Amino acid sequence: MSMRSRMARACLGLAVTSLASAAQAEGPGIVAGDLVLHPEAFANGSFDNNVFYEDASEDPQSSSVLRVGAGLGLENRSPNKVALDAGANLSYRHYLASGEEFEARNTIDRAALNGMVAFLPRAPITVEVHEDLGFRDNPAFDDTEFGFRILDNSLGLDVRFRPGDNPENRPFEMRLGYRWQTVNFVGDDADALNATVAEKDAHHVRFLTSWRFLPKTALLAEASWSAIDYAEPLDITLVGAGGQVSSAPADRDSRPLAVTLGVKGLVTRRVSTTLKVGYRNTFHNEGTSFSSVIGTAELTYAIEPTIRATLGYNRDGRDNAFSNFYTLNQAYGTADFYFLGRWSLGGRVGFDHYAFSEDAGGFARPEGERTDPVLRGSVYAGFSPRDWMSVRLELASQQNLSDFENGAADNNENTIDPVAYSRQQVTLGLQVNY
Which residues, including other chains, have CB under 8 Å from residue 422's CB and lie 6 or more apart? Predict the structure, then answer.
């Protein structure tokens, strides 16, 4: 698989939230005056049969993987004038397979620093300061020691207005928020893999209104606008009628605007739903823009505390470093069954369809149309000896069924690189969040 395809996946973050595992329950913490500390740690071992997301024709490389991590959460017990909620964590990854391409990626692979400070959190008007910093290291190729090392930071402010004297029962809320986001590829790896074309600087403004017109059901309205600027243009290879090859700089900057209306809450005592529908236009500076309906539909059935099942669908258009945008359609389902007080079984299944725009900055891509249909699934069994401790065995599978081939426009079979892949992982892990 080509560098461009691998980097695209690293930026897209194809580990879809709809299939994400439920968060570990938090323990009582360690009380220190007005502060409560929540230490956390995990360790797991896994087997990955396709570390570099290669097509079957490329002889996929497999490896056993060990990961350990630790973190600390922090909150205050009496958030009357100021509320604090912060956390930090990191993890280390070690491949047991031999070879420079594996050994160079035995490193810190994930790190995060998150914080929120709210001033007058129980008053009708609250001001919140948010900071979210994340780092991840993704392997790139089976023939290089370099990897995609991504640093994503978001800093901003929310102003919330919730009229009413009772902080526990305020049915109406308006929220205006701003985030400044930067995405950078760090280290020598960035230049070696030409990853800087995916670096960007963005400003996001969001306005949200919610009105709880029933005890557990609310109407939602949201509007958002962004200014997304990539650090440098993308070089597009152009093939002339006579076969001559040239390149052109593609401007992928955009000013997306979106509005949605929706409802969220209980339909019956056991059935809840989230329904949102709206419109998004990415307003790219050059070339085509995504201009279409977006929406989310999710239905959840729960018999607490035994069964919880969800079916959902999501449609959106998002900026993309390697074309102007991609259209995403997702369908997913989840099921969790809890029994004997401490045991759990569950699974997730999903289908994601990525349709990339055929141009970047107004220049048609020589490879033509690209769509990535991706199937995902996982099953797990878990045991929790304590509310804040869990042991979990999971089997996960991903199948990219795309027939797209990078380099196909060059008419050189030596440069043709299919983006399809099949990947399976088995993971056994222990997690503690005290």
Answer: 50, 56, 60, 397, 398, 399, 400
As to burial, measured by CB atoms within 10 angstroms (0-12 exposed, 13-18 middle, 19+ buried), residue 246 is: exposed
Place of tokens 């959460």: 73
Q: Is residue 30 classed as helix, strand or coil in its secondary structure?
A: strand
Gap between the Cα atoms of 18 and 351, Å rounded: 10
Q: Provide the number of structural domains found in the chain.
A: 1
Contacts by residues 395-398 (CB-CB < 8 Å, ≥ 24 positions apart): 395/424, 395/425, 395/426, 396/424, 396/425, 396/427, 397/422, 397/423, 397/424, 397/425, 398/14, 398/374, 398/422, 398/423, 398/424
Q: Average pLDDT in the 63-79 region? A: 94
Report the share of the chain in percent with pLDDT over 70. Answer: 91
**Are 265 and 272 in contact, with CB atoms under 8 Å apart?**
yes
* Distance, CA of 212 to CA of 277 (rounded, Å): 18
Among residues 314, 266, 269, 318, the alpha carbon closest in space to that of 289 is found at 318
CA pair distance 81, 167, nearest whole angstrom: 13
The CATH number for 11's domain is 2.40.160
What is the amino acid identity at position 369? E
16 pLDDT band, cuts 50/70/90, is very low
Q: Which of 1, 22, 45, 28 is nearest to 336 (CA)?
A: 22
Distance CA 330, CA 16 (A): 9
| 3-class SS of residue 103 | helix
Instruction: Determine the pLDDT at residue 7.
Output: 56
Contact 220, 209 (CB under 8 A): yes
Query: Burial, 108: exposed, middle or buried (Cβ in 10 Å; 0-12, 13-18, 19+)?
Result: middle
Whether residue 246 contacts residue 240, with contact meaning beta carbons closer than 8 Å, is answered with yes
Which pLDDT score is estimated for 22? 45
The distance from CA 382 to its chain's CA centroid, rounded to whole angstroms, is 24
- For the stretch 374-416, pLDDT in tens is 999 999 999 999 999 999 999 999 999 999 887 655 555 555 6
* Residue-number span of the structural domain to which 88 is assigned: 3-433
Q: How far apart are the C-alpha atoms of 81 and 118, rounded to whole Å? A: 8
